[in-house]
Every structure is written in structure tokens, then in C-alpha cells.
């Protein structure tokens, strides 16, 4: 995306009016050669990698419409239902950085296959679960498998497509799969629940994972993707991060049922905050001990010394921190409201699982509209203007939920559904491009991992927090309205951050041009 943006800004190249005609050299020659070659995509490896990502994104939304049936079948309480949704994204976020580090040390292909295997085994456990506890453990296992296969699949995609232009097209396909999977989740879940019960939601993962494994073994060579063994892992940082996220989400989950002053809730929240503060301290200490290793290139030459899992210096890169915060805010607001919206249609309106999936389509299918719209706008303006526009659109859309009641006609809700879906997807695409632009030249991998962590943390906190609002409010729709107001505030805050970053970047470019 960055290459496209720079090429669009550079404009056409003209030859001098006099003198001999010469062939273009330097960057101009590279652009001409890239435009004339246009190598083909390696379709079989791309399908294998996209199938893995498809599973990860499908299971973000496919489970939501099955929640009422799960509650009726297993006698699941409100807190357990939240953990069935929240546990997946929480462990995914907690292990994502570890997954990226493991892929670099152990090999991307082996890590990708391990993630697929773990995801499949965990899906099997979910499908045969006889209790809420087993189902939650299975969902945690799915999150761990996703944390392994996502960074490994992106590393493999880059290794299989070394040409920058082809790799950009491959990444676009890989990302488009996420939008299709996310949008199809509620409908697929509704069809599966209506036809085969909630367990069919998890049985579906097994043949897809098996196909992805077969394609990987056949079409991706064992040496695909680099391996770096110089860096030692950061097990203490990983442990503190996982404990902090799980304890924080657990406290938020239990607050709705036990109350915010419950000793268990206060202890879990306190443990979560303490663990995350300790995590930040450990990362700063490790980076201070290796001051020469504050760039990705230098960290690969640290001679085996332990390096921080998340280098704090990364957050000093221009616009990196605001964009990471925006990633957290949009996931907190959108996924939190998606969780409540699903329950609203099924509990308050009496919709079936399939009808609920269809009702959510105007929101979750907006990725198919936002992707081409984003690519056209960004080629002319860069990622920050469409990011601010998407945030503002979603903020207004969430306000459309404020008058909602138990009998609100569905057409009245269409604007809220459409605006929030389009705005969120437009923002997510723009933020992904912006986070890569803001990262050091050789640090796009860790930058992308941080952005995914921020999004997963936002999703986990949003589902937990909005779930407690709905559980503790006088009635469900009151909790829904309160959550919609908070979601609108989160997106409006993100819009302010995006506009501030855009203005700062414009001032910087103006100063550099003087």
C-alpha cells in the first residue's frame, strides 16, 4: 500500500526536451520493470495461508449466533458465555507476540502447521464438549493456535512472494479473506446452528484445517521463511502479559454477576493491572541492558542475549502509538457492540440463529465495500484521512442505537448497522497501512503484531465490559444504549487522534519542504 501511495504522489516522469533519449534509471527504472513484469501469484500456497487466516477470523463471529443454543444445551451462565467469546480473543492477544517470536526462531512453516494442528484439536474439544468448562478450555486452545498461525502465515506469505508488487497483491487477497470470513460468520453460524446444532459450528473447522495442512505440506517448502536463533525468548514478559490480560478480562467478566466490589473481582483486576505494569517494567529493563539493539537489524545481532518481547522504543516512532490506540478503540467499540447486538436480536426480538445472522449482514459484510473504497482513496490521500472518516462515520452510527427498545422496527436500525460496519472496516484497513508506514523499515513484523495485539485486547475488553453493562443494567436495552454511547465515544476519540496525527504529519512535511 505504501509503495502505491508513493508512486501516486511521484507523478509521471518526463524526458528532457533536448538531447539524446535515455532509458530510465534508478527508482524510475524499477517502477517500469515492476509494471511490465507482473509475475503471477503462487496460488496454492496463498490458498493454504488464507485458509488458516479464514479459520481465525471466522471463529471471531461464527460463535456469537450459537450462544443462546449453547446456554440452553449446557446450562451456561452469563459469565461463561462471555468467556466462550472473550477467552478466544484474550489468549490470542496474549500469545500473539510469542507466536511471532517462535516463528522466527523455530521456522514459519513449522509454526504455521503447529498452529493449525492446535486449532483443529481445540475445535474438536469444543465440538464434543459436555460442559461449559470444557468448551471454554477449547476456545482458549483455539486462541493459542490462532496466535501461532497468524504471524507465521504472514511471514510465509512474504517469503513465497519476494517481489514487492506481487506480495502486495497477495497481502490484499490474504486480508480480503478476513473480511469474507468475518462477514460470513453470522450467516454460516446461523445456517449451521439451524441445521445441525451449535456443535456444527466447531465441526466445520476440521475439514478446513485439514485442507490447509495438506496444501501447506505439498506446496510450501520446509525452508520457507527465515529463521533467526540469535535472540533469546522473553518468557517472563510473555507470562506477565498473558496473566495480566486474562486476569483483567476475568475480572470484567465476573463483575456483572458478582458486582464491582466483589473481593474476587477486585483481586482479579488488581492482579491484571499489576502484571501488566510489571510487564512494561521488564520490557524497559531488557531494552536498557541492550541499548545497541533498539532496531530490528541490531536485535538480530545481539549474540544470544535476551531481548524484550515488545521493545518500548517502538512506541516512539511517529504516529505509531496513536494508531495502535485507535486499533484498540475500534475493536473495543465494534466487537463489544456486536456481542450485545447478537444477544439483542435473539433475546429481545426472538430472532432465530439464522435470522440473526442475516440481520447482522448489513454491518459485517461492509468489508466487501470498504476494501475497494479504501484502496482508491488511500492511493490519493494516504491512510490517515480515510481513517478519520471511518471513525467519524462509526461514531455517528453508534448513536443510532440510542433510541433502541425491545420493539424497534428493524429498518430503523439499518443506518446504525451499515454505518458502524463500513466505518469500522475502513478504519481497520487504514490503520493497518498506517501502522506499517509508522514502523521502522525492518520492523514491520513486530509493528503488525503490536497492532493485532491492541485490536485483540480491545475486543476482549469490549465484550467483557459491555457484557457487564447489559447484565447489571435495569434491563437489557438500557445496557445496550449505555454501551452504544461508550462505543460512539471510543470512535470519536479515535477520530480526534487520527485528525491530530494527520495535522502533525502535514506540519512535518511542510517544515521539511522549507
TrEMBL record:
Membrane topology annotation: Multi-pass membrane protein
Superkingdom of the source species: Bacteria
Membrane-crossing segments per the record: 46-67, 79-100, 112-137, 172-194, 200-221, 233-252, 264-282, 324-345, 351-374, 386-404, 410-436, 480-499
Keyword entries, A-Z: Antibiotic resistance, Membrane, Transmembrane, Transmembrane helix
Location, primary (coarse class): membrane
InterPro entries according to UniProt: MFS, MFS_dom, MFS_trans_sf
Residue intervals of the Major facilitator superfamily (MFS) profile domain: 45-506
Region ranges (Disordered): 1-28
Keyword Membrane appears in the UniProt entry: yes
Protein name: MFS transporter
Annotated organism of origin: Streptomyces cavernicola
Taxonomic placement: Bacteria, Bacillati, Actinomycetota, Actinomycetes, Kitasatosporales
Amino acid at each position: 500500500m505504501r509503495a502505491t501511495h508513493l508512486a501516486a504522489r511521484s507523478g509521471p516522469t518526463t524526458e528532457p526536451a533536448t538531447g539524446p533519449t535515455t532509458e530510465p534509471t534508478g527508482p524510475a527504472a524499477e517502477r517500469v520493470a515492476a509494471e511490465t513484469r507482473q509475475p503471477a501469484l503462487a496460488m496454492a500456497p496463498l490458498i493454504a495461508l488464507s485458509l488458516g487466516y479464514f479459520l481465525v477470523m471466522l471463529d471471531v463471529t461464527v460463535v456469537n449466533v450459537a450462544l443462546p443454543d449453547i446456554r440452553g444445551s449446557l446450562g451456561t451462565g452469563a459469565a461463561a458465555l462471555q468467556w466462550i467469546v472473550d477467552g478466544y480473543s484474550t489468549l490470542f492477544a496474549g500469545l500473539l507476540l510469542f507466536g511471532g517470536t517462535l516463528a522466527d526462531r523455530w521456522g514459519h512453516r513449522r509454526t504455521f502447521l503447529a498452529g493449525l494442528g492446535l486449532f483443529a484439536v481445540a475445535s474438536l474439544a469444543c465440538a464434543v464438549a459436555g460442559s461449559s468448562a470444557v468448551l471454554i478450555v477449547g476456545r482458549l486452545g483455539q486462541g493459542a493456535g490462532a496466535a501461532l498461525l497468524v504471524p507465521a502465515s504472514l511471514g510465509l506469505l512474504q517469503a513465497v512472494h519476494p517481489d514487492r508488487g506481487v506480495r502486495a497483491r497477495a497481502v490484499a487477497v490474504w486480508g480480503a479473506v478476513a473480511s469474507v470470513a468475518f462477514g460470513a460468520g453470522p450467516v454460516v453460524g446461523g445456517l449451521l446452528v439451524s441445521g445441525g446444532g451449535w456443535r456444527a459450528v466447531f465441526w466445520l473447522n476440521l475439514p478446513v484445517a485439514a485442507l490447509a495442512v495438506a496444501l501447506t505440506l505439498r506446496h510450501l517448502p520446509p525452508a520457507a521463511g527465515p529463521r533467526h536463533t540469535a535472540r533469546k525468548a522473553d518468557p517472563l514478559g510473555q507470562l506477565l502479559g498473558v496473566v495480566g490480560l486474562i486476569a483483567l478480562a476475568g475480572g470484567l467478566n465476573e463483575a456483572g454477576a458478582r458486582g464491582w466490589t466483589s473481593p474476587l473481582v477486585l483481586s482479579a483486576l488488581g492482579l491484571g493491572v499489576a502484571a501488566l505494569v510489571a510487564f512494561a517494567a521488564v520490557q524497559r529493563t531488557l531494552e536498557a541492558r541492550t541499548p545497541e539493539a533498539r532496531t530490528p537489524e541490531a536485535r538480530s545481532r545481539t549474540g544470544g542475549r535476551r531481548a524484550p518481547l515488545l521493545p518500548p522504543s517502538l512506541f516512539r516512532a511517529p504516529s505509531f502509538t496513536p494508531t495502535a490506540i485507535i486499533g484498540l478503540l475500534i475493536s473495543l467499540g465494534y466487537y463489544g457492540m456486536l456481542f450485545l447486538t447478537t444477544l439483542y436480536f435473539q433475546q429481545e426480538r426472538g430472532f432465530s440463529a439464522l435470522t440473526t445472522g442475516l440481520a447482522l449482514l448489513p454491518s459485517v459484510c461492509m468489508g466487501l465495500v470498504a476494501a475497494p473504497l479504501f484502496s482508491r482513496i488511500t492511493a490519493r490521500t494516504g491512510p490517515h484521512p480515510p481513517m478519520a472518516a471511518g471513525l467519524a462515520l462509526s461514531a455517528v452510527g453508534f448513536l443510532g442505537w440510542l433510541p433502541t427498545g425491545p420493539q424497534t422496527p428493524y429498518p430503523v436500525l439499518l443506518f446504525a448497522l451499515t454505518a458502524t460496519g463500513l466505518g469500522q472496516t475502513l478504519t481497520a484497513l487504514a490503520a493497518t497501512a498506517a501502522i506499517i508506514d509508522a514502523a521502522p523499515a525492518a520492523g514491520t513484523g513486530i509493528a503488525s503484531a503490536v497492532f493485532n495485539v491492541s485490536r485483540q485486547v480491545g475486543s476482549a475488553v469490549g465484550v467483557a465490559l459491555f457484557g457487564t453493562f447489559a447484565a447489571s443494567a435495569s434491563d437489557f436495552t438500557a445496557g445496550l444504549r449505555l454501551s452504544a454511547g461508550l462505543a460512539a465515544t471510543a470512535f470519536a476519540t479515535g477520530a480526534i487522534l487520527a485528525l491530530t496525527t494527520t495535522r502533525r504529519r502535514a506540519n512535518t512535511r511542510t517544515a521539511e519542504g522549507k
